[in-house]
C-alpha cells in the first residue's frame, strides 16, 4: 500500500480529540488525508498532533446530539475541503446502570451520540461520495455491537444499531465505489475505559493495574488492550484498494471476546 495513498482526500472523524478517534485521525493523516476533527473540550493539542503529520486540519465542535449542529459541521467540512471522502463515525459516550434505574435523559444522549449522529453524517456525506464514485464510511461500533453486557442497555442497543446501519448502508452502496464497514473493538484503554478502571479500583480498594487486569480477565482472553494505533491500521486497510470489496462487515478486534 502506498504510504500516502489518501493524499488529496479528506477525512472527517467525529469524537476525535482523544482516544480511538484521535488514533484514527492520526492514521488517516499519515496516509496523506486532510482531517476535520470534532469533539468536546480542548482540541488544540489534538489538532496540532494531526497537523504535524503534514496535512491540513480543521476543527468543528458540533454537539453530536443536535442535528442542526451536525448539518453545520458537514457544511463546514465541504466548504473547507470540497468534500468528505472518508467518514469515521466514532463519537460515543457511556452510562452504566440497570434498566430500571437508567436515567431516561442518559438513554436519549447515548442513542443520539452513539447511533443517530452516524445516520445524520452518513446521509449528508453519501451524495458527494456517490457523485465521486468513491468513499469510505467507517462506523466505530464495539464488541458490544455483537454481544451484550449487563448494565449497558443504551450502549449495547446503540452499538447493535450501528452494526445494522452499517449493513444497510453497505447494501445501498453495493454497486458503487463507496464502502461502509463497522469496526468492533474490545477493551481499548481510552479515557472512557480508564474511567471504568478507576471506578473499579476505587470500589474494590485495589491498584489501577490490578483493576485493569481484572477488567480484561472478565471479557478479553488475550489479556491485553487493543491500541488506537492498531485500530487505525485496520481503518487504513479498509480505505485501501484491498478493502474495495469489504462491504457491511462488523470486524471485531477484541482479543477473542466475541469468540467465547
Layout of helices and strands:
Elements: E1 10-13, H1 19-30, E2 34-38, H2 44-51, E3 57-60, H3 67-81, E4 86-89, H4 104-132, E5 135-140, H5 153-172, E6 178-185, H6 191-204, H7 208-219, H8 228-239, E7 250-253
Parallel strand pairs: 1-2, 1-4, 2-3, 4-5, 5-6, 6-7
Helix pairs in contact: 1-2, 1-8, 3-4, 4-5, 6-7
Across the major sheet, the strand order is 3-2-1-4-5-6-7
Question: For this structure, what is the CATH homologous superfamily of the largest domain?
Answer: NAD(P)-binding Rossmann-like Domain
- What is the number of helical segments per DSSP (H or I, 4+ residues)? 8
Order of H and E elements: EHEHEHEHEHEHHHE
Shape: globular
Average residue-wise pLDDT: 96
How large is the share of residues in beta strands? 5-15%
Outline the biggest β-sheet. 7 strands, parallel
Assign the structural class, choosing from mainly alpha, mainly beta, alpha/beta, alpha+beta, or little secondary structure.
alpha/beta
Overall CATH architecture of the largest domain: 3-Layer(aba) Sandwich
Identify low-pLDDT runs: none
CATH C-level of the largest domain = Alpha Beta
Number of domains: 2
Here the CATH topology of the largest domain equals Rossmann fold
Question: Helical residue percent?
Answer: 40-55%
Annotation, overall tally of beta strands: 7
Through-space gap between termini: 33 Å
Q: Rg from C-alpha positions?
A: 18 Å
Amino acid at each position: 500500500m502506498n504510504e500516502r495513498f489518501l493524499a488529496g482526500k479528506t477525512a472527517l472523524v467525529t469524537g476525535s480529540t482523544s482516544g480511538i478517534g484521535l488514533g484514527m485521525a492520526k492514521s488517516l493523516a499519515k496516509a496523506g488525508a486532510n482531517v476535520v476533527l470534532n469533539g468536546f473540550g480542548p482540541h488544540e493539542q489534538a489538532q496540532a498532533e494531526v497537523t504535524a503529520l503534514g496535512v491540513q486540519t480543521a476543527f468543528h465542535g458540533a454537539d453530536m446530539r443536535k442535528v442542526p449542529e451536525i448539518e453545520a459541521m458537514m457544511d463546514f467540512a465541504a466548504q473547507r475541503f470540497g468534500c468528505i471522502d472518508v467518514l469515521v463515525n466514532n463519537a460515543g459516550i457511556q452510562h452504566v446502570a440497570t434498566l430500571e434505574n437508567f436515567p431516561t435523559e442518559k438513554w436519549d444522549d447515548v442513542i443520539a451520540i452513539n447511533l443517530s449522529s452516524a445516520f445524520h453524517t452518513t446521509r449528508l456525506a453519501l451524495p458527494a461520495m456517490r457523485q465521486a464514485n468513491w468513499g469510505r464510511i467507517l462506523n466505530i461500533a464495539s464488541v458490544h455491537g455483537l454481544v451484550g453486557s449487563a448494565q449497558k442497555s443504551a450502549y449495547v442497543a446503540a452499538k447493535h444499531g450501528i452494526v445494522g446501519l452499517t449493513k444497510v448502508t453497505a447494501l445501498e452502496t453495493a454497486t458503487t465505489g463507496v464502502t461502509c464497514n463497522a469496526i468492533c473493538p474490545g477493551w481499548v484503554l481510552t479515557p472512557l475505559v480508564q474511567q471504568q478502571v478507576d471506578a473499579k479500583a476505587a470500589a474494590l480498594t485495589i491498584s489501577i493495574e490490578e483493576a485493569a487486569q481484572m477488567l480484561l480477565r472478565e471479557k478479553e482472553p488475550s489479556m491485553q488492550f487493543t491500541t488506537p494505533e492498531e485500530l487505525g491500521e485496520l481503518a487504513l486497510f479498509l480505505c485501501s484498494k484491498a478493502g474495495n470489496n469489504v462491504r457491511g462487515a462488523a470486524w471485531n478486534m477484541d482479543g477473542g471476546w466475541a469468540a467465547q
